[in-house]
């Protein structure tokens, strides 16, 4: 289909692709094009930022957790100021406050955003669909044990469950308990045990036996 002209970012204007644009999509395009036209940013800068955002994944958070498992000093720094500790590893959290909460034998932490889907994307990438669902957002604060059980996390009655509600300027990351049988493991090997869900609190780290059997750790 022919296009009448190109936008300032070099992309053709079009009323739709496969479906009509939503109001917010139209607003994003309009603001982006105005910023480019005014010289506030450039198409290259926008593409670079998109690339940076796409590169974020739970592997970032796993590296932070593994460092906390192997380095008591870093663990203390992380629990005191998770934003600064993460930045020291090269993961820029930006202006928001990141709080690390640690799972122990007596306490299990789980993260939710009751308002929308606030999430530490710099460390964990994009949030899973279930994290954004109304059911998870509402039920986790009311019946956390039942929700955790549905994820396969069965906790003893003696374990305290703490639910942390993220906000627009404050995010959380769970530091899961280090699996037993990992003495002497390298930081890289330990990071392979850390799952996205374990850093949300709806899961546990992988079993070290599985990685040993696969010959990838130990």
Model description:
With 218 residues, the protein is mostly helical. It folds into 2 domains: 32 residues, no CATH class; 158 residues, Nitrile hydratase alpha /Thiocyanate hydrolase gamma (Nitrile Hydratase, Chain A), CATH 3.90.330. Helices cover 44% and strands 11% of the residues. It is built from 12 helices and 4 strands; from the N terminus they run H-H-H-H-H-E-E-H-H-H-H-E-E-H-H-H. It has a two-stranded parallel ribbon with strand order 1-4. Helix 3 packs across helix 4, helix 4 crosses helix 5 and helix 8 crosses helix 9. The protein is globular, with a radius of gyration of 21 Å.
Keywords:
single chain; 218 residues; mainly alpha; Nitrile Hydratase, Chain A; 12 helices; 44% helix
